[in-house]
Design brief:
By secondary structure, the chain is an alpha+beta fold. Helix content is 64%, strand content 15%. The strands form 3 sheets. It has a 5-stranded mixed β-sheet, with helices on one face. Strands 2-1-4-3 form a 4-stranded antiparallel β-sheet. A two-stranded antiparallel ribbon has the order 5-7. GO terms for molecular function: phosphorelay sensor kinase activity.
C-alpha cells in the first residue's frame, strides 16, 4: 500500500509546494522531512523493542524452567509434594508464571500443579524440561508463562518513545525555522524587492549585500546584471533611433516587394490549376472513351437482336394477314420473341449497369460531394470504368476489399487518388512491359481504414523516392508525364481526406503505397474543401 500511494502523495506535495511561499515551503519541507524520518525510524525502533523484549522473556522462561527442573529433582525422587510446592514458590513468585505442572515418569502421573492462568489474559507459551536424579530421568516439568505483562511493557515503551520523538521533532522544527528565517528567508525577501526594482526599470540604485555566502554571491550577480542592463538599455535606445530611420525607408520597399510576390504567387497558382484541369480532362476523356467502348458491345448486340426480331415480326405479320398461320409457325415466333426479349433485357441491363456506374462516379468526381458509401462498392464502380482501358493492356488489377467498411467521406477525390496510382503504375511502373500486377487491399484499424496499393513493376529508385510528391517532378517529362499525378494524390489524401500516405519501393521490386484514412473525414472549412476544379478526374 505504501508503494502504491507514495508517488501520488509526492506529486500532491510538489503541487502544494509550487503554489506556496518560500517560508511555507521550507516549513513544509522541514516538517515532512522530519516526519518522514520518524515514520521510517519509529517502526524500526518499535520492532527492535518488541524483538528484544520477546528475546528477554524467552531467556527468562528457559532459565526459570531449568531452575524449576533442578529444584524439583529431590522432592520428586523423595515423593514429597509439600516440599516440591514450597521449593516452587521461588519460581512461582514471578507474576508472569501462569502454571507449573510436574509429572513423574514413567507412569506420567501428575505430581504437582500450581496455576493462576484464569487471572491472566495471555497469550501463553509453554516450555517442557526433563527432571533428572543421578543422570536418570524421573519426570518432566511444564512451565507456562503469560505475555500480558510483556505487552504492557512494550506499550509503555512505545508511548515513552513517541512522546520523546514528538518533543524532539517540535524542538528541531523550531530551531531550524529560526535559523532559516534569519539566514535565508529575510535575505531572499530583500532580493525579491531588488528584483522588482530591476523589472520596473529602476537601474540607478546599486544592489549591496555585505555577505560572503551564496546570498551575497547572488546579490553580486544581480548587481552585475543591473549594470549590464543599464548599458544595454542605453545602447538599445541608440539602435532604436537608427532603426526608426531605417524602417521609414524599408516600409515602402517591403510593400513593393510584397505586391510583386503576391502577383507571382497568383500566377503560379493559376498555372498549377490550369495544368491540373488539363490532366483531369485528359483522364476524364480516357474514361469516357473506355465506357463508350464497353457500351458499344451490349448496345450492338441489342441492335442485332432487335433487327432479327423485326424481321421475324414482319414475316409473322405477313403470314397472319393471309391467314396462313400454323401452330408450328406461331410457336416458332413466340420462341424467337421470348429469346429476343431475354437477350435485349440482358444487353440493356448490362448497358444500364455501366451507365449507372459511370453516372455515380461522374457525379462524385464532378461535384466532390461528401456522402456515406460502402468502400467495396465504390471501388468496384471505379474499376468498372477503368477496366476498358486496362483491358487493352497486359496488366491485371485485383481488388481485395471487404464489404463491411462504411465511410463518410469524399468518394470523388478518393477515386482520383487510386486512378492516379493506377495510371502511375501503368505509365511509369511497368513502362510498356508485357506483364504486370496491381492490387488494392483495405482493412479496418480502429476508427481508420488502411488501404494498400502495390504493383510488381520496376519500382522507384531510392534517390528520387523522397521527391515523388513534388509538383512537376517526373522522369518522363515530354513523354506524357506532367509531374502532377502524385502531387495531387498527396494533397488529396492529406488535405481533403484527412489521412496519411507513405510510399516504399526498391529498384526492380515494385512499389507500395499505404494510405491511412479516417472512416469519418474531419469537417473542413470552406477554404480547404475539395473543389471540382482541383480534384475531379
Amino acid at each position: 500500500m505504501l508503494k502504491k500511494n507514495a508517488f501520488p502523495f509526492y506529486f500532491r506535495l510538489a503541487f502544494f509546494l509550487r503554489g506556496t511561499s518560500l517560508r511555507s515551503a521550507i516549513i513544509a519541507a522541514v516538517f515532512f522531512g522530519l516526519i518522514g524520518s520518524a515514520i521510517i525510524l519509529i517502526p524500526y525502533n518499535i520492532s527492535s523493542i518488541d524483538t528484544n523484549a520477546h528475546k528477554r522473556q524467552l531467556e527468562d522462561h528457559q532459565r526459570l524452567t531449568n531452575i524449576l527442573a533442578v529444584i524439583q529433582s529431590e522432592p520428586l525422587w523423595q515423593i514429597t509434594p509439600d516440599i516440591a510446592r514450597i521449593s516452587s514458590d521461588v519460581v512461582y513468585s514471578d507474576p508472569r508464571i501462569a502454571t507449573i505442572d510436574v509429572f513423574s515418569l514413567p507412569d506420567h502421573k501428575k505430581f504437582l500443579t500450581l496455576s493462576r492462568k484464569e487471572q491472566q489474559k495471555g497469550p501463553f507459551s509453554t516450555i517442557v524440561h526433563t527432571i533428572k536424579h543421578d543422570e536418570k530421568v524421573i519426570g518432566i516439568v511444564e512451565l507456562t508463562m503469560a505475555d500480558d505483562l510483556l505487552i504492557e511493557e512494550e506499550r509503555t515503551a512505545f508511548i515513552r518513545y513517541a512522546i520523546t520523538a514528538i518533543f524532539s521533532l517540535i524542538i528541531a522544527v523550531i530551531l531550524i525555522l529560526l535559523v532559516l528565517q534569519q539566514r535565508l528567508v529575510v535575505p531572499i525577501r530583500r532580493l525579491m524587492k531588488e528584483s522588482e526594482r530591476l523589472s520596473n526599470g529602476e537601474l540607478t540604485n546599486p544592489i549591496v549585500f555585505n555577505r560572503s555566502d551564496e546570498i551575497g554571491h547572488l546579490a553580486d550577480t544581480m548587481e552585475a546584471t543591473r549594470q549590464a542592463l543599464a548599458r544595454t538599455f542605453s545602447e538599445l535606445e541608440i539602435k532604436n533611433n537608427q532603426l526608426t530611420d531605417y524602417s521609414n525607408t524599408l516600409e515602402s520597399k517591403v510593400k513593393l516587394r510584397t505586391s510583386e510576390l503576391e502577383t507571382a504567387l497568383k500566377n503560379i497558382n493559376h498555372v498549377h490549376q490550369e495544368l491540373t484541369r488539363i490532366e483531369r480532362m485528359a483522364s476524364l476523356g480516357s474514361m469516357v472513351a473506355g465506357v463508350a467502348h464497353e457500351l458499344n458491345t451490349p448496345i450492338g448486340n441489342c441492335l442485332l437482336v432487335a433487327s432479327t426480331l423485326e424481321a421475324e415480326v414482319l414475316k409473322f405479320t405477313e403470314l397472319f394477314t393471309v391467314g396462313n398461320v400454323r401452330r408450328s409457325e406461331l410457336d416458332k415466333f413466340m420462341q424467337c420473341a421470348n429469346e429476343s426479349s431475354t437477350l435485349l433485357l440482358r444487353g440493356l441491363h448490362q448497358a444500364a449497369h455501366l451507365v449507372g456506374d459511370f453516372k455515380q462516379v461522374a457525379v462524385d468526381q464532378s461535384s466532390a460531394q461528401r456522402r456515406q458509401f460502402d468502400l467495396h462498392t465504390m471501388m468496384i464502380e471505379l474499376t468498372s470504368l477503368l477496366m476498358p482501358g486496362l483491358s487493352k493492356t497486359p496488366y491485371i488489377l485485383i481488388i481485395d476489399i471487404p464489404t463491411n467498411i462504411e465511410m463518410d467521406s469524399f468518394p470523388g477525390p478518393l477515386g482520383q487518388v487510386f486512378t492516379n496510382l493506377i495510371t502511375n503504375s501503368v505509365t511509369h511502373g511497368f513502362n510498356e512491359r508485357d506483364y504486370g500486377n496491381m492490387r488494392i487491399t483495405a482493412e479496418l484499424v480502429g476508427h481508420n481504414v488502411k488501404m494498400t496499393f502495390t504493383d510488381d513493376g520496376y519500382g522507384i529508385p531510392p534517390e528520387i523516392l523522397h521527391r515523388i510528391y513534388e509538383p512537376f517532378f517526373t522522369t518522363r517529362f515530354g513523354r506524357g508525364g506532367s509531374g502532377l499525378g502524385l502531387s495531387i494524390t498527396y494533397n488529396i489524401v492529406t488535405n481533403v481526406l484527412g489521412g496519411e500516405i507513405l510510399a516504399t519501393s526498391a529498384q526492380n521490386q515494385g512499389c507500395k503505397f499505404v494510405i491511412t484514412l479516417p472512416l469519418v473525414t474531419p469537417i473542413m472549412d470552406e477554404a480547404n474543401a475539395p473543389s471540382t476544379l482541383n480534384f475531379a478526374i
